[in-house]
Amino acid sequence: MPGKLKVKIVAGRHLPVMDRASDLTDAFVEVKFGNTTFKTDVYLKSLNPQWNSEWFKFEVDDEDLQDEPLQITVLDHDTYSANDAIGKVYIDIDPLLYSEAATVISGWFPIYDTIHGIRGEINVVVKVDLFNDLNRFRQSSCGVKFFCTTSIPKCYRAVIIHGFVEELVVNEDPEYQWIDRIRTPRASNEARQRLISLMSGELQRKIGLKVLEMRGNAVVGYLQCFDLEGESGLVVRAIGTACTLDKLSSPAAFLPACNSPSKEMKEIPFNEDPNPNTHSSGPSTPLKNQTYSFSPSKSYSRQSSSSDTDLSLTPKTGMGSGSAGKEGGPFKALLRQQTQSALEQREFPFFTLTAFPPGFLVHVGGVVSARSVKLLDRIHNPAFVGIMGNTRSYKLLDWNSFNSDEPETRDAWWAEIRQEIKSHAKALGCHAVVGYSESTSICEEVCILSASGTAAVLNPRFLQDGTVEGCLEQRLEENLPAGCGFCHIPYDELNMPFPAHLTYCYNCRKQKVPDVLFTTIDLPIDATVIGKGCLIQARLCRLKKKAQAEANATAISNLLPFMEYEVHTQLMNKLKLKGMNALFGLRIQITVGENMLMGLASATGVYLAALPTPGGIQIAGKTPNDGSYEQHISHMQKKINDTIAKNKELYEINPPEVSEEIIGSPIPEPRQRSRLLRSQSESSDEVTELDLSHGKKDAFVLEIDDTDAMEDVHSLLTDVPPPSGFYSCNTEIMPGINNWTSEIQMFTSVRVIRLSSLNLTNQALNKNFNDLCENLLKSLYFKLRSMIPCCLCHVNFTVSLPEDELIQVTVTAVAITFDKNQALQTTKTHVEKSLQRASTDNEELLQFPLELCSDSLPSHPFPPAKEHLESASSNSGIPAAQRATSVDYSSFADRCSSWIELIKLKAQTIRRGSIKTTVTVEKASPMGEGNFRNRSAPPCANSTVGVVKMTPLSFIPGAKITKYLGIINMFFIRETTSLREEGGVSGFLHAFIAEVFAMVRAHVAALGGNAVVSYIMKQCVFMENPNKNQAQCLINVSGDAVVFVRESELEVVSTQQPTANCQPSCTGGEVTT
Amino acid sequence: MTSELDIFVGNTTLIDEDVYRLWLDGYSVSDAVALRVRSGILEQTGATAAVLQSDTMDHYRTFHMLERLLHAPPKLLHQLIFQIPPSRQALLIERYYAFDEAFVREVLGKKLSKGTKKDLDDISTKTGITLKSCRRQFDNFKRVFKVVEEMRGSLVDNIQQHFLLSDRLARDYAAIVFFANNRFETGKKKLQYLSFGDFAFCAELMIQNWTLGAVDSQVDDMDVDLDKEFLQDLKELKMLVADKDLLDLHKSLVCTALRGKLGVFSEMEANFKNLSRGLVNVAAKLTHNKDVRDLFVDLVEKFVEPCRSDHWPLNDVRLFLNQYSASVHSLDGFRHQALWDRYMGTLRGCLLRLYHD
Q1: Do B86 and A753 lie within an 8 Å CB cutoff?
Q2: Which of B2, B3, B8 would you mutate first to test chain A, the one with the most A CBs within 10 A?
Q3: Pair (A568, A499) in one structural domain
Q4: Which ranges of the sequence are coiled-coil (chain B) (predicted)?
């Protein structure tokens, strides 16, 4: 299906001086798409040229529209010599291809040069005319929407969550091609930028095809990464979760996309593609631009065939009969079995989502992870060397095998790891993995592939037909206690996959729960949390001998299990030290360098009301009969106990004592096996054999019999809590804080330290690394002190080892202010509530066996307070149980987002925190936002540059996202040969990151948006050569461009207006002041 | 363990006002850190010196990058690289263009040339302002001067439009530009008692009344150059002192009017001719550039000092000057009333301002 791309070059401003003689520039513009190029006239002698060109029209296929970026080059005309390039702008036109997203791209774009950075700006207008009507268009592959957000986007409703999609594209890295020896660094960088842009487009298009095949219309939690494998090439890979989404504002406007996906319609758009469905092995698309595609031909077809069987198994979606899913009733049980087994039959029942519609997540088993060490070797040696059993195996792989039909490709590697994740999940009694992510770490020819996720049992309803009615029924049917259901063990108690210490749930007291829970997902909204959460990190370094190829890979494989063990121990210790019992958002990163391995685990610790109170940490010495030693130990013990007590106070962890008393008696004595319990499934059998249970004592015992352990204890105690007024977490929202005000500050901080190379020991290394991270955090707290009280959310640490003695840590996070007074109030109500709950628990106890239906009451430990308080005042006489369903309903509606405006408004505010009170609802909007609005919101008041917010979160506090404009996925290279002149490495990188932010903001503004949500800096590769005065940096960022409206404005302003407001009003480039 | 690289980049650029001040004052990073430590910030926040060092470096780097934009403030408003709220942008600009009284007194009226720039180290030693800060202030003066010097329209408006300064600061810059252009001598020992404010006040009056812009608002350089024709005409005033009769008549008019009203009447009466001769001769000399430059020296020598030595109270000076200029209207033989008013109106204002200890 062809389309017409129209581009107009309006004007430029702040251009650099290109002609020294006149101090002016004779600028013109080349507009290139595919192989077609247009030029504007030369605008003589001006730094602010007004080209006001005609519309340049490109007639292109939609495949090209998806793959190719629009390339705009600004040049200085020179009569006698070659024209000098000023810089370029790449514009991804993908957002113009969805019917609901942006309709025009128009605005000022920074002109970017890989050597000089930003050099002025250019005003461009881009439009796309498609030759067919909208409806048909929606069926084509470019109608598929992409979201980086790892939850169902705010203004959509998930009709069906189909499942995992993945794709991978490989090419030679232009930096390593022979031609690179003769071309300029600029040409080489631009070739790389363009290639990655092309590959991203192709990847996205291919994923889109898969989604259509699964009959979805969107990809949520889309994560695209690239691996710079050096000599062996460049891999761009992506994973995501295919969904069928329904736009909320017009619930009845169109039925789910699966409604009538007639086969012909679907195939028409792609008939350029030789065989869209079969994907025979080998390159699946016509080879353009020398891009070799490694679509996972085998696995993919397998997957699609299996999902076909799913469809035929279930009566609901078969035959494309659409959302005919209302008859449910009697078949429910049957259906459940079928879908569940269907899920199991899927090749990879993985979900990249970290937050879910209510009722979706039934049980959580624990973290599953798998790693594998691979050699990126060009030598043909297909021998398989199984060293570490099936997990930590590495293979010698012939990279050139892609030319033959050799199945050993990157796909096979990932397939293998995914397979393992799946089996781990199965071992935990779970049929799905949520919060799934993949990553790599590459050093020379060694590559560690990692995957991790959280094993879970899901409500199959959503996987087939996720209408609200459906899940409501489902919910009633399953009768899950909302606040604790997900904590209940999914595996068989008698046949546990690992030693665990189970107790009855402290919340509902019916099901068993583990004593500690580790997960990679966000805290479920309905989870009952006591106190606040905090960022917990485990940091670890291990020296490794320098080695080559196989020996190196073997050494790494040998180290990995120990690293994982230690990281896990550290996490567990720190969690206990904080007096908490669960980790969310766990992300363990293992980085490989020439002579060391680094492990960094970050997670958010919380105290889940459903889990038992964690035991303390006990220190035991092994050297007996030494007075001073004993004294030392008792001193340490005291310090630890003090710290735990202090932390409990700091994070307001005061579980209601009442409930403990009540719960105390009916709970059967702890299981005979009173061992330390682990809820995390280790990725490999070896590790499990290592017995992570830390002895057989009830409390956590640290034996300090050597310096290592001493050091551990010390490092435990050296972690300084954030200064008062600061909280931090790496999840979306901070458990226990729900009264966000609207001030946000997203930032990236990078640090590189050089280790003194002289006789490094593991201890010294650990200390250095620990100090690096701690100091970095301290710096952040100091810098953001003006925002107190505030919380650092979504703190994302990335470690890389660019050189022998260099450690680089990159942090991206967002600081959000909150209202302290309200916080106090909520804690109060919170305590009251827990007391209340305790008493309801008590009541419930008495009628336990009888009352099956009214059980739904305790299942909502936090009924939306509005109703709650209302009822308390007006009709407090009515038993709570009678209102249970309605309460359920509204709290549901907001998260499920199927309700209409009225409820949505309320819901928005409620959703923010896990604790819901009227106080928040009322205070949050008029006060907090009202004040800030005037300062931050009107973008065009007196400066011509509109404010664009950026945040790694999926929401903007105090505001409502009204429109998603498309995905932002940008890749930049910056290089310098005058490092000293640009302020050294810090000056260079500082400027570059600021420029990247600027370019992201400019693109969002040009799309008509005013914020980027789910922003992530996926890669920041920095290389320097101070001796040559050179440095190079590659940055890859992505996020979702959105339009948001302040909640306080919502009533006044219609949802359309902000879009107009935020359009940069400065087309003429005039000064308004 | 040494830190190779250490940066922090916010989506909204963080500006620390205290660090900005230290940077503007020209302190090196280490001096700035030391000063911050002394301010007690470590105790307040519980931070370490290393944190402070890193924070200061970061801010300095940001300011360094912003400096290029601050040289042309409208660019700061339109650039896309740093997202800064408008109120903060205004603060950045205003503070960047602010100057030290001690410094401006040293440079005021001097040619803003390379030569003067070379003397900045002396000024720095003399005033205790860091050389870096001196350079910034000097460069600001020069930059503003270069941009507005040949522009048509009101000087203050031009400065405000091109540098986005507050009204107050734009007026100060107008004075600086005016003084630099006319090279008024302000550095003589006699003039040391005068503040920048005194000169700026005079400059404003002179711009309003004595420049080309005062008669025609559509000429280049209108507010910067004095009206040459006017200066030529001032020679005509000489008859007020040259003509003996006119001088006597003038004296008697003033004395009659002020008798009993002035505490220093007798001194005034005795000095009238000297004072009048002084004021009129200043006017008559203004045709020569050299004498224009010495305007303030002359005014102080010929008027301020004699009055001061006789301990005239300010109010008596005011009464005298009012009467002195008004009485000329009653001199029938004198035809240049308008010229006299244009001259004396401004001069009276200036003298009153200059008359203090």
Answers
A1: no
A2: B8
A3: yes
A4: none
Nearest CA in chain A to B51: A779
Q: How far is A129 from chain B (nearest CA, A)?
A: 30
Contacts of B89 in chain A (CB under 8 A): 943
Angle at A479 between CA A473 and CA A484, to 5 degrees: 125
Q: Where along chain B do its domains lie?
A: 15-82, 99-208, 227-352
Q: What b/e readout covers A455-480, taking b as 16+ CB neighbours within 10 angstroms?
A: bbbbbbbbbbbbbbebbbbbbeeeeb
State how far residue A48 is from chain B, nearest Cα, in angstroms.
12
A519/A434 same-domain check? yes
CB A204 within 8 A of CB A171: no
A217: CATH? 3.30.110.70
Q: What is the ipTM of this complex?
A: 0.90
- Domain with A186, as residue range(s), is 144-248
What is the C-alpha to C-alpha distance for residues A182 and A194, in angstroms, rounded to an integer? 19
Residue B64 contacts A where some CB pair is shorter than 8 Å: yes
The answer to whether A780 contacts chain B (CB < 8 Å) is yes
Regarding whether A178 and A125 lie in a shared domain, the answer is no
CATH code of A44's domain: 2.60.40.150
Tokens describing residue A412 = 């096979």
User: Is A936 within 8 Å of B54 when comparing Cβ atoms?
Assistant: no
Instruction: State the total domains in chain A.
Output: 3
Would the CB atoms of B11 and A950 count as touching at under 8 Å? yes
Same-domain pairing of A443 and A542: yes
Yes or no: say if A823 and A917 are a contact pair by the CB < 8 Å rule. no
Give burial (CB, 10 Å; 0-12/13-18/19+) of A350. Answer: buried
Residues of chain A numbered 980-999 and touching chain B (CB < 8 Å) = 983, 985-987, 989-991, 993-995, 997-998
A998 contacts A119 by C-beta, under 8 angstroms: no
Helix (H) or strand (E) holding A687, with range, is: helix A685-689
**Looking at chain B, how many residues does it have?**
357
Residues 6+ apart with CB under 8 A from B225: B181, B182, B211, B212
Q: Check A1002 against B80: CB less than 8 A apart.
A: yes
- Tell me the whole-structure pTM to 2 decimals: 0.79
pLDDT of amino acid A318? 29
Contact predicate A148/A967, CB 8 Å:
yes
Q: Which of A753, A756, A1073 sits opposite B3 (nearest CB)?
A: A753
B9/A contact by beta carbon, under 8 A:
yes
Query: Percentage of chain B surpassing pLDDT 70?
Result: 97
Same domain, A709 and A794: yes
- Residue A945: helix, strand or coil by DSSP? coil
Partner-chain residue, chosen from B54, B75, B89, that has the shortest CB–CB distance to A14: B75
Who's near A769: CB < 8 A, 6+ residues apart?
Answer: A539, A540, A541, A598, A807
Q: Which of B45, B61, B89 sits opposite A990 (nearest CB)?
A: B61
| Residues A618, A509 within the same domain | yes
Residue B233 sits at the chain A interface (C-beta within 8 Å): no
Tell me the per-residue pLDDT of A511-557, one tens digit each, with 9 for 90 and over: 888 888 899 999 888 888 888 889 999 998 888 888 887 888 888 98
Residue A584 pLDDT grade (very low, low, confident, very high; cuts 50, 70, 90) = very high
CB burial of A96-112 (b: ≥16 within 10 Å; e: otherwise) equals bbbebbbbbbbbbbbbb
pLDDT in tens, A763-773: 888 888 988 99
Residue-wise pLDDT tens digits, A692-705? 443 333 445 665 55
Return residues 948-987 of A near B (CB < 8 Å). 948-950, 983, 985-987
Mean pLDDT of A227-252: 79
> Taken in order A261, A264, A270, A276, is the CA torsion positive or negative?
positive
> Which residue in B60, B78, B80 has the most chain A C-beta atoms within 10 A of its own C-beta, making it the best mutation to test that interface?
B80
